[in-house]
Design a protein that fits this description.
The structure holds 2 protein chains of 2 kinds. By secondary structure, chain A is an alpha+beta fold. Chain A is built from 9 helices and 22 strands. Chain A folds into 2 domains: about 230 residues, P-loop containing nucleotide triphosphate hydrolases (Rossmann fold, 3-Layer(aba) Sandwich); about 140 residues, Nucleic acid-binding proteins (OB fold (Dihydrolipoamide Acetyltransferase, E2P)), CATH 2.40.50.140. In chain B, helix 8 runs antiparallel to helix 11. Classes of the chains: A alpha+beta, B mainly alpha.
């Protein structure tokens, strides 16, 4: 097992910089997810860790040993691909045994270790088959076994669940997490699927364009996105984002846009002062947005535009002024298309970002007891 | 299908059918028929039953020629048309794309060259005097000129055919290797394979079908090819580098100061056709070509 440290890691393919000055350290036994849209550089980092790509700049350390110049076979890295990359001409046994055979392990040792890892992954009865005779889930387990059989220092998983159907994905992610905990193996998971990252990882690094946008625990990522990109990337359905102006004249800080004014607690002022008179972006997650159908003076008015029942929940599309806003409410909600509703916002569930840089601006609500925002229907 | 459509289809098929019949079926049938005659320069269809085939049993040259044919076919196949082709394909996939393509284009040049030009170039390379390319090197190194063609006739025909023949396999294997998903080689690397182990355990097994295809196809092609041998060694010295097809050609078309022995030549060709057919059936069975037709050529999960 190993601690992994990346320092100023950069990879350029010609003029294209795929990974740009990434600093990251991963604790022994930790499961870290690299999460981001395709092309953000997450797989490139993985391939550099495996020793398949050489960094253009920067260093990779395994337990304080610089491994930039160590070839893949010397790194003790297990790699699982999205495609599984099981050798189609070999049986399951031979696939799993392959890394051991390359090391010229003894026949009995190969036999013992392959069976052992196959038992852990519950694929013992499949050892004689060819990969083409296996289901996707079984192939996935074989790929995992092949990565684990050499008892790697570091396990790298590249979109390991993307080729599985929805139900199997849930089972497999539990399974992988269990195995990872049991073996205490340092693991890096690359995924574009936030659910995968949120459910499996101890910490998540959200990436975009070769840069880490935020590195934090899953819950914090969801509750306190560091910038607009993370805010819009994490959460399904995505966060409502509304461009507004911050005003502080006349005593009370507030956010305004055509048809919508939201008053903020006085504590928000110091944090937002820099943004005075400038555009900010207000973010509210659909699941944090509540509304009532009885008229309530002072609350912003919206019209129900469309309902999308999702079973347990219903997604309500609304128009407030010129803004389109979505709320996720329990499936039993009695809202109907065309209804006029009144929005209720809680200040600790609001996110405000700088309109230019996209950086999170703190509302300072933490210092105050929970405060119901009195939002006024505008104009 | 209506009657009109049938007629239209038949009319559309006719030109192609006519070409195939005129230039393929008719000569084949004529050759088969001719093999039962003792036709010579007088071009008389004088049927003699199996006499020409019985003559083969008594032809004291044939065992040596058969041996030459087998050595020529399988040595060229193993060393060049498949062996060298795999090496060239691996080498050109290993280097950057552009360099690989330039190199392949160079290697393909002889294919675009008329056989006679290719043959003459080799005759210059192998010239027995000090003026030959190879001998000028030998002389420069302090040696005496070697009479390559007379001293090593079989090696010469294998080499000259192999150099041009390898390009076919090279192109096929190159594209096969290129179409192997990168994940396989990355997985092999991560599993701890060296480049050589990767080739041995992953690349070659994954291009198994193209390998078998080129082997089968080139066997048939080598069995019947003789043009470079005719140009470079003429099958000699004496019969030392004569292969079956060249022997049939020479007999039929006036080599060996013979009397244009069309009948015997045709019989020899028929035997070659039978040999080729047997080889095809063996390959079909052993390599399970039916599977190859059904499956994608490169196995990808």
């Amino acid at each position: 097992m190993a601690r992994i440290r990346l320092e100023g890691l950069t990879k350029a393919f010609g003029p294209v910089v795929a990974v740009n000055d990434v600093n990251l350290s991963i604790e022994d036994g930790e499961l870290l997810a690299l999460l981001g849209p395709s092309g953000c550089g997450k797989s490139t980092i993985l391939l550099m860790l495996a020793g398949i790509y050489r960094p253009t700049r920067g260093d990779i350390y395994f337990d304080d040993q610089r491994v930039n110049d160590v070839p893949p076979k010397g790194r003790g890295v297990g790699l699982v691909f999205q495609s599984y990359a099981l050798y189609p001409h070999m049986t399951v046994f031979d696939n799993i045994a392959f890394p051991l055979r390359l090391r010229r392990a003894k026949r009995e040792e190969i036999e013992r270790r392959v069976r052992e890892v196959a038992r852990t992954a519950q694929i013992e009865e499949l050892l004689a088959r060819k990969p083409s005779q296996l289901s996707g889930g079984q192939q996935q387990r074989v790929a995992l076994c092949r990565a684990l059989v050499k008892e790697p220092e570091l396990l790298l998983l590249d979109e390991p669940l993307s080729n599985l159907d929805a139900r199997l994905r849930i089972e497999t992610r539990t399974e992988i997490k269990r195995l990872q905990r049991e073996l205490g193996i340092t693991t890096i998971l690359v995924t574009h699927d936030q659910i995968e990252a949120l459910t499996m990882a101890d910490r998540i690094a959200v990436m975009r364009s070769g840069v880490i946008e935020q590195l934090s625990k899953p819950q914090e990522l969801y509750e306190r996105p560091a910038n607009l990109f993370v805010a819009s990337f994490i959460g399904d359905p995505p966060m409502n984002l509304v461009r507004m102006e911050f005003r502080n004249d006349g005593g009370m800080p507030r956010l305004e846009t055509a048809g919508l004014t939201i008053q903020l607690p006085p504590s928000a002022r110091p944090q937002l002062e820099r943004a005075e008179g400038r555009e900010v972006v207000l973010g509210v997650r659909p699941e944090d947005l509540r509304f009532r159908t009885e008229p309530a003076p002072g609350l912003p008015v919206a019209q129900v535009f469309m309902l999308e029942p999702l079973g347990r929940d219903t997604l309500v599309d609304m128009r407030a002024g010129q803004q389109s806003i979505r709320a996720l409410v329990p499936g039993s909600s009695e809202a109907k298309i065309g209804d006029t509703v009144y929005l209720q916002l809680e200040v600790e569930k609001l996110h405000v970002f700088d309109g230019v840089t996209g950086v999170r601006l703190d509302l300072g609500a933490g210092e105050q007891p929970a405060l119901r925002v009195e939002a006024k229907g505008g104009a | 299908m209506s009657r009109r459509q049938k007629v239209a289809l038949a009319v559309l098929m006719l030109p192609a059918l006519a070409v195939v019949v005129a230039f393929y079926a008719v000569p084949a049938v004529m050759t088969a028929a001719m093999s039962f005659t003792d036709m010579d320069f007088r071009l008389r269809w004088n049927f003699v039953g199996f006499a020409t085939f019985l003559r083969m049993a008594e032809d004291f040259l044939l065992p040596g020629i058969l041996q030459n044919t087998i050595v020529y076919t399988f040595a060229t196949l193993a060393l060049f048309n498949v062996g060298l082709a795999v090496l060239l394909a691996l080498a050109t996939t290993f280097v950057p794309d552009r360099i690989g393509r330039v190199f392949q284009a160079l290697w393909l040049l002889p294919r675009f060259t008329p056989p006679i030009v290719y043959g003459i170039i080799w005759m210059w390379i192998l010239d027995p005097t000090g003026a030959g390319l190879l001998n000028s090197l030998v002389v420069a190194a302090g040696g005496r000129p070697v009479n390559w063609i007379t001293d090593y006739p079989m090696a010469v025909i294998v080499l000259t055919n192999g150099i041009i023949g390898a390009s076919f396999g090279m192109v096929i294997f190159y594209s096969a290797i290129k179409s192997i998903p990168r994940d396989y080689s990355w997985a092999a690397l991560a599993d701890g394979a060296t480049w050589l182990q990767q080739v041995r355990y992953v690349t070659l097994p994954l291009i198994r079908w193209p390998l078998l295809f080129v082997t089968a196809y080139q066997t048939l092609s080598l069995l019947t090819s003789y043009e470079y041998i005719l140009i470079i060694t003429g099958g000699g010295p004496y019969f030392a580098s004569t292969v079956w097809s060249l022997y049939a050609y020479n007999l039929a078309f006036g080599g060996y100061f013979a009397n244009y022995e069309f009948g015997y030549g045709a019989a020899l060709s028929i035997v070659l056709v039978v040999l080729g057919t047997v080889a095809s059936i063996v390959y079909w069975r052993v390599f399970r070509f039916r599977d190859m037709m059904a499956e994608p050529k490169i196995e990808v999960m």
